[in-house]
Amino acid sequence: MSAATPLGDLELIRSGPAGAVTAFDAPVDGPVVDGHYPGFPVLPGVFLIEAADRTVRQWAHGNVPARDGAEGGEVDLVAMDRCRFHRPVFPGDRVLADVTVTDNAAGLLFKAAVATNRGKVADIRLRYRVRDGQGDGAEQGEQEAEGAA
């Protein structure tokens, strides 16, 4: 994870076999918020996707067994199947990322519902594969994404 993220640490609210919930406070200042949009600061949507991804990875560390020499809980993002933003996230908002998992032949499918106290702000669907210990998985993920296109 990049040190450049303005989200900081996500607070793990709960984690279980069906998914996980994390929370964070949207930053109140800084170049990311101030510049998006001048005079109407909002948290860029890419950080909601990041929160969903980081929630999945926190869930995986406690719920995905090791495979073929890989460390337990290692998953690779294969694709983002859906991303819909419903309303903006404002500086200082408390944001919850609630992800649920479905395991199928194509890998792990996660549905993320991201919300603030004003309601749902995003629906996101992410697909992952369990890392197998053979390299970093980036090559296989790229091949799978090209095959789906």
Automatic annotation (TrEMBL):
The protein's name: ApeI dehydratase-like domain-containing protein
Alphabetized InterPro entries for the sequence: ApeI-like (IPR054545), HotDog_dom_sf (IPR029069)
UniProt xrefs under Pfam families: ApeI-like (PF22818)
Top-level taxon of origin: Bacteria
Domain spans labelled ApeI dehydratase-like: 21-116
